[in-house]
Amino acid sequence: MWFGSPPPMNYSPSCYELAKVNSTDLVYDLGSGDGRIAIAAAKDFGARAIGIEFNPEMAQLAQRNVDRSGVADRVKIINGDIFVEDFSKATVVTMYLLPELNIALRPTILKMKPGTRVTSHAFNMGDWEADVEIDSPSKAFYWVVPAQVAGEWVITGMESGKTILKLSQHYQKIGGTLQIGNESQPLLNPKLDGATLSFTYLDRDKSAHFVMMAVNNNELKGLYKSRSYNDNVITGKRL
Predict the structure, then answer these.
(1) Last residue of a domain, which of 114, 144, 174?
(2) Distance CA 193, CA 145 (A)
(3) Which end of the chain is more exposed for a tag (fewer CB within 10 A), N or C?
(4) 102-145: per-residue pLDDT in tens?
(5) CATH assignment at residue 131
C-alpha cells in the first residue's frame, strides 16, 4: 500500500539500477500497490518478483496488471501483511512506505542474508545511513544488508602468527584494532560491504598489507598480501 502519491513511473528503473537487479534476482516489493514496481523487475530487468500488498482490492488490481503485462510466470502478488509474510529469500527488497514503517521493518531486514540489496523510495531508515542516496529523477535510498561482525576474532595464516581482530560496528560502519603479539594497532580504511570485510594494517616492519575476507556467520576466510606480495589464504573464528 502506498502512502501519498504512487511512485513516479521512472522510480522503478532508478531503484533497480541502484541495486543492479538482474535475471538471477528474486525481488520482494513491500507495499506493492498496483504492482508497477514488481512488474518492472520482470519486464525491464528479467528478475522474478513477489509483491506484498495489504489492501485486498489493490492486490487484485496488481494481479490483473501482472496478467495484462505478460509476466505472470515471473511475478506474483500476495495479499498479505509485510510484518507477517516471510520475505527472507529475497535478494532485493524494494519499499515505498512511511518512515515509521521503514524503521519498524529495519530489524527484520538487518536479519536477512548479508549482501541483500534494499531500496526505498522517498524515505530513509532512520539512523541506518544509506550506502547510496539519489535525488534525481526521484529521491531514493540504497542499502546493502551488512554481516554482523562486532566482537573479537582470532585470525590464523598471517606471517605474523596468531592475530586478534577486534571489531566495533554500527550497521555497515566498522572500526577496530588488530593485535599482533603484544602490539595493537587501529585498522586502516576498514570496510564492510555485505558479507565482505576488508582493511589495511601495518606489519612489524611498517609495511602495509591489504586484507579481504568473506564473513560466514562465525567464520572468516580470505586473502592478504604478504611481504612477497603473494595472496595468502587466512581464516578467522569468532571468540
Answers:
(1) 144
(2) 8
(3) C
(4) 999 999 999 999 999 999 988 999 999 999 999 877 789 999 99
(5) 3.40.50.150
